[in-house]
Amino acid sequence: MKNPLRKIYPYLLRYKGKIGLSLLFSTLSILFSLVSIGLVIPVLQLIFGVNGSMSDSIAGTTLFDQIKREFYRQIEIRLQTTTVSEALLYVVLWVLAAFFFKNLFHYLALYVLAPVRNGISYQLRRQLHAKLLELPMAFYARRQKGDIISRITVDLREIESALITLLEMVFRDPLMIIGSLAVLLWMNYKLTLFVLLTLPFVSWVISRIGRTLKRQSTTAQSQLGSLMSHIDETITGLRILKAFNAEHVKQSAFERINDAYYRTSNRVMRRFDLASPTSEMLGAVIMAAVIWFGGRIVIASDQFGPANFIAYILFFYQMIPPSKAISRASYNLRKGAASAERVLEILESSNPITSPPDAKVITAFCDCIQFHQVSFGYREDLILRNIELTIPRGSTTALVGLSGSGKTSLVNLIPRFYDISSGCITLDGRDIRTIELRSLRSLMGIVTQEPILFNDTVRNNIALGKPDASWSEIEDAARIANAYDFICQLEMGFDTIVGDMGSRLSGGQRQRIAIARAILKNPPILILDEATSALDTESERLVQEAITRLMQNRTSIIIAHRLSTIRHADKIVVMDRGQIVETGTHEQLLQFGGIYSRLIKLQEF
Ligand SMILES: Nc1ncnc2c1ncn2[C@@H]1O[C@H](COP(=O)(O)OP(=O)(O)OP(=O)(O)O)[C@@H](O)[C@H]1O
């Protein structure tokens, strides 16, 4: 399978300039790093004592040789005019300067890379959030909330670190290795060729260790997702858990997931941690071989000399950290690939509920909504079968039926929260799948059973569907929804933050804000899922009054739980196991003596 990280690479393109600059700084840093070690040779030679002219011993004609010869000549001039210790000070100051520039450029390379690092997560986070808003409801039915959150947080961090590792691995580390190798070859090619022969063996060992890491890492990430979902559920349902003394049920379920995550994380971490010691050990083995092999060369020839040999070892040592980093990088990349797969699964999920290119933008609802032989299922099995229904403009249609009979599923089809399996739903004679989706939804207002409020101000919650509404429009909507008085009594009035899901408000207050929201949007079609939770009489009266006002001059589709509220509906549709079994007015259905009249009798007692 192709590495999923490949699809993330294009995100780096936006930062070409910065990456290039960072590469330039890295190159300079590497150059100074090599120079700083090269400068150690004269230090050592001064300490060991110089035999003859240092500059004359350099025979080569390359630019590198010329610079070196000139530098040695400067030392010799100082040796002739001053003491050895002053010549030493001269060299040491050069060493210090080289180290300073090495580190300065290293920091600058990281400095320009910071916005690249954070920018990748930034872009992906933005796209993921937009995608989450776009994806259809069906996408969420199959997934855990915590798992999605962990993909946006933890997995993004893994991708970020993998990509940065990649940048270092592709540019900086190889450059360091190549630079050091070039110097090593220049210093002693025989010894260096011997070192090069060992490299394929080293990379084989490293890739073997990394092989299972990606699989284990995927498991760990999805376990972390379950963990987050669990915590989310615990906090949401805390009241019930406490009331039922069921804390231990949740705790032991949590411990099971936590244990599994702990064990997988241990395995991942152990594999990951194996990278560094393995490569260090391999480095040490090669180093030992170099010392053994090279030591004999030094003994055999007096050309190479002890100072050069020590410098050779230092140059060689320079290669170990980047080689270690490369081996570590291969693990990081595997972890990153596992995370990229999880993130791409969201980004690449297709959304079947979209408008076709030639979709019609509608601005008004004139005639009726019709269901023609509509069948629907969330999966293979059908939940709704052969639905035939006409909802004329300006009418009130009530859906009744036992719990699970399919009422909510039916109304969810009108704003295309789900698409039907067969048949057709039309609005003014036009298949709703050919209508531009936003314009279709803009005709509808929805008040759900459990009002959905966001952790924002009362004002912004009301203005959700009409963000450009004026203050007076918002206040008027609140007045019509019987919400104005209680809002004014809140600590900060319309600017009060309502808490997570509106937790700082009572059930009735939440409902009235949701109604005010629908009133402000002023849609021609209203879908109302009547609240089942009982409110106290006064609150109930205020909510009911608000609903009656909301329904005025609109086409309303109500899912009714309390039959007393829908007696005056133009049409009552009785559903049973996914089918429409009776339709008519209250009086007609009572006379018919079917399910509706039985339900009425049940509610009277
Ligand atoms: N997201 C979903 N995924 C799969 N099945 C679902 C989903 N939502 C509902 N169902 C199933 O569809 C059937 C109809 O559910 P629906 O919510 O439409 O009934 P309802 O009449 O509105 O019930 P209630 O009055 O209790 O709200 C039920 O059997 C339910 O299990």
TrEMBL record:
User: Transmembrane region positions?
Assistant: 21-48, 87-116, 191-207
Q: Does the keyword Lipid metabolism apply?
A: no
InterPro entries, A to Z: AAA+_ATPase (IPR003593), ABC1_TM_dom (IPR011527), ABC1_TM_sf (IPR036640), ABC_transporter-like_ATP-bd (IPR003439), ABC_transporter-like_CS (IPR017871), P-loop_NTPase (IPR027417), Type_1_exporter (IPR039421)
**Record-annotated ABC transmembrane type-1 domain positions:** 21-335
List the membrane topology term(s).
Answer: Multi-pass membrane protein
GO molecular function term, any single one: ATP hydrolysis activity
Keywords assigned by UniProt? ATP-binding, Membrane, Nucleotide-binding, Transmembrane, Transmembrane helix, Transport
The terms describing its cellular component in GO are: plasma membrane
State its location(s).
Cell membrane
Q: Which domain of life is it from?
A: Bacteria
Major place of localization?
membrane
Cross-referenced CDD domains = ABC_6TM_MsbA_like (cd18552), ABCC_MsbA (cd03251)
> Which residue range or ranges hold the ABC transporter domain?
369-602
In terms of PANTHER family, this protein maps to: ATP-BINDING CASSETTE SUB-FAMILY B MEMBER 10, MITOCHONDRIAL, ATP-DEPENDENT PERMEASE MDL1, MITOCHONDRIAL
From the Swiss-Prot or TrEMBL record, give the protein name.
Subfamily B ATP-binding cassette protein MsbA
